[in-house]
Design brief:
- 0% of the residues lie in helices and 41% in strands.
- The chain is mainly β.
């Protein structure tokens, strides 16, 4: 054993197995530090860097000037927090973002905000035959889907009916019908009002 002692306290301790303790007289690892450590240059790691699970309010990996912002374990995935609140986490089955997301903008003012100096395109693509590409709009009352399926374009009220369709093969438009036989086919009453 070897140790360095000042003011009656062991500051540096090397045990019989070669473990080194700083502020720790029973080191359980090759280097066991009880207290804060400061590095003024790069810290190189060529193996796993293990830490506690942490939480959004007290992340395992945080910044010196803001201890409640950083990275922590979230279930079987990884979470990121800012100002003590979870803003993003990801695991094997999902990705969760608890803030506005901006693409092409650093100041998104909606949950999903796309900005581009030109045509701003949001693309949904299905690469499997017989499956559609969907954009679903949901409220507490009902849910509508904008659907591209087998070349057709549909507006569905989910679980109720297809309200609108454009057939790819003919270009026919159907309202209240899925198989319009004319350029415009409406299944229901059409009302037109004019005023003088």
């Amino acid at each position: 054993e070897f140790y360095v002692e000042t003011a009656g306290t062991k500051r540096l301790y090397v045990d019989n197995s070669g473990n080194v303790g700083i502020g720790q007289v029973s080191p359980g690892y090759k280097l066991d530090v009880n207290g804060n450590a400061r590095f003024v240059s790069d810290l190189r790691n060529e193996a796993r860097l293990l830490n506690s699970v942490g939480s959004a309010g007290s992340p395992s990996y945080s910044f010196f000037s803001q201890g409640n912002a950083g990275m922590y374990r979230s279930g079987n995935g990884v979470g990121f927090s800012a100002n003590g609140a979870s803003v993003y986490d990801i695991n094997s089955t999902r990705m969760y973002i608890n803030t506005n997301v901006g693409i092409g903008t650093s100041s998104p003012n909606a949950k999903f905000h796309v900005s581009h100096n030109g045509s701003a395109v949001v693309k949904a693509e299905s690469t499997a035959g017989g499956y559609g590409a969907y954009s679903r709009l949901t409220t507490t009352t009902n849910s509508y889907s904008l659907v591209s399926l087998n070349g057709d374009f549909l507006i569905d009220e989910d679980g109720v009916a297809t309200r609108f369709i454009i057939k790819d093969s003919t270009g026919n438009v159907g309202i209240g019908t899925n198989s319009p036989g004319s350029t415009l086919e409406v299944n229901g009453v059409i009302e037109s009002n004019t005023s003088d």
